[in-house]
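**User:**
Make up any protein.

**Assistant:**
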Amino acid sequence: MIADRFPELLQLTAAEQLQLADELYNQVVTGSPALTDEEIYGELEKSFEHAKAHPETTATWDEVKARVLASRRA
């Protein structure tokens, strides 16, 4: 068992263990570690700036929600 090699893992809270599992899963799936808070903020800023510059390519929350609900009914 991996925890035998890393006993400090057993000292983590349940929430910390779930966060670690999520981070490890994401790294395996994407091939890269999770983004830092600063990286997430930077990506959100880029997305927001793009939306302001190209409003025709964006959708409102109501439009997105309607599409999701319609797809669930189909």
In short: Helices lie at 2-5, 14-30, 37-53, 61-73. The radius of gyration is 19 Å. The longest helix spans residues 14-30. The chain has a mean pLDDT of 91.
